[in-house]
Amino acid sequence: MSDEKKEEEIIPKEEKSNEPEPETKEEQKKEETSQPKEEKDIKEEKEKKDEKVTEQKNEVTEENKVKEEKVEKETNEGTEEKKEEDVKEKKEEDVKEKKELTDEEEDRKELYDAIRDLKPQDASDNVKSKLILLSEIHLEKKRVEDDQYGKEYDELQDRYDKQYQKIYDKIDDIVNSTEKIEITAEEMEKYGITETEEPKAIDDYWEKVIINSRYFTITDRDKVILKYLSKVKIVKFPENVVDFRVDFYFKPNEFFTNEILSKKYIYGKDALLKKAEGTEIDWKSPDKNTTIEKVKKRIKKGKKYFNEFKETKIDSFFSFFSQVDDMNFISDEVSFFKEDLFGNQLEYYMDIVTKTKNEGLGEEDEELDDGGYNDGGNKGGKHEGNDGKKEECKQQ
Questions:
Q1: Which of 168, 247, 276, 313 minimizes the number of CB atoms within 10 Å of its CB?
Q2: pLDDT digits (tens, 9 = 90+) for 195-228
Q3: Cβ neighbours of residue 111 closer than 8 Å, sequence gap 6 or more
Q4: What is the DSSP letter of 256?
């Protein structure tokens, strides 16, 4: 019995010795603390790696995005350029086609359409056939007129314009000269000159020429300014023999700062007048502007009356420089300057052109002649010149 007990005592002891010894509190705490720290470091390291991978992916994505945008932009630019080129080519084709139609093709189309639309009772097939042949001969005449006559006419006109300008320059020199003019005793007796005054310029020469031409609308206020007009000159342009400009030279005055007021007349390649450009007048103050007038209007407010002033445009000599839109007036101005004013300036100065012209007019006609058109309407003068014939011929 004692042996059995002894054996029992031994067995539990061995079992007890196999179990791990209990840890102290400090060791347990240390183990608990170290365990999470390691996991945290691993987690943080993993997160950093993930962030780095994400950043790399974002960089690659951004780089790809930039490349895609660049490719897309280049593609769009190429497409836009192609579109622009296509549009440009189409415009050029349209212009070319339009140009062809505005010249001989247009004339041919107009003639052939008219022949085609003839009714049987108006023209037989035989007549239509002959009209087609006559149309071709008519177009041949127009080709000669446009290609040969027009070009030679412009060159001839330019040659004579240059000769005329030399004569006009001599006139200006004499008009503005302050040197003594030597005349013979015979001339003094013939023209009733008894004594010679101190030589000076003819200050009112162009003032009288412009007023006596009766071409422009001239107000009393305009006449005051025209006393400062010293010279009028026509200027040609070397790049296009038909383009020209008219310059009006003014002495310093209290009305505007411009020394020269000009109007330029521009022709197209077809030698037809296309447009005009006038100088913008720099008036020193609104009340000096002769193209504007303050109109007084009496208005009633309640029981009282007040005067209200409103600015309105009026016809004036200086309106001529802003009148550039109405081609009927512009064409008439061209004829007036090139075929009338400069060639007849001496007669206008002495006011003998109108007197001679009025001798053959009745009372009613004289009233019309003393009236006139506004802003460049023809108020008299010789407008039946070569230039007028040319314009009419080319427009037919």
A1: 313
A2: 767 888 899 999 999 999 999 999 999 999 999 9
A3: 135, 138, 139
A4: B
DSSP, collapsed to helix, strand or coil, labels residue 295 as: strand
Residue 123 — φ and ψ, nearest 5°? -155, 130
**Among 308, 262, 270, 315, which residue's Cα sits nearest to residue 292?**
315
Q: Where do runs of H (alpha helix) occur along the chain?
A: 2-18, 25-102, 104-116, 125-144, 150-176, 185-190, 205-212, 220-226, 327-336, 345-349, 353-358, 363-370, 386-395
Helix, coil or strand: residue 381? coil
Cα–Cα distance for residue pair 112/141, rounded to 1 Å: 17
Q: From CA 1, how far away is CA 227, in angstroms rounded? A: 164
DSSP state of 373: -
Contact 284/254 with Cβ under 8 angstroms? yes
Contact present, 263 and 321 (Cβ < 8 Å): yes
Q: Could you tell me how far CA 30 lies from the centroid of its own chain?
A: 93
Q: Can you list the domains of the chain with their CATH numbers?
A: 202-395 (3.30.1120.90)
Separation between Cα atoms, residue 246 and residue 263, nearest integer Å: 5
CA angle at residue 209 from 230 to 204, to 5 degrees? 45
Alpha carbon 336 to its chain centroid, in Å, reads 25
d(C-alpha 327, C-alpha 276), whole Å: 9
